[in-house]
Please model this.
Amino acid sequence: MNHNEFDFDGREASEEASTVEAGVPKDFRRLHWHEPVLNGDYVIDAQRGFELWEGPSGFRADSFVKPIYRRGKIQAAKKLQNHE
Model:
């Protein structure tokens, strides 16, 4: 393992992410690596939880160290059901 895979307190970054992701509400979905991050997406942090991303948009989700989430998984499914 290289030094980039550890958080500042010595824990593995994957340990922190999996702990936080266990409490993700069902109406949030994690962005795929190639999706652009937009205003209104959320950065997840172990200490502070979900933080609204208000920075510049257009960066790919894999350019962030922390996982990025978008709200709307359930809303999109409901829209599909209404149009059928």
Q: What stands out?
A: Residues 1-11, 74-78 have pLDDT under 50 and may be disordered. Residues 5 and 13 are 6 Å apart (CA to CA).
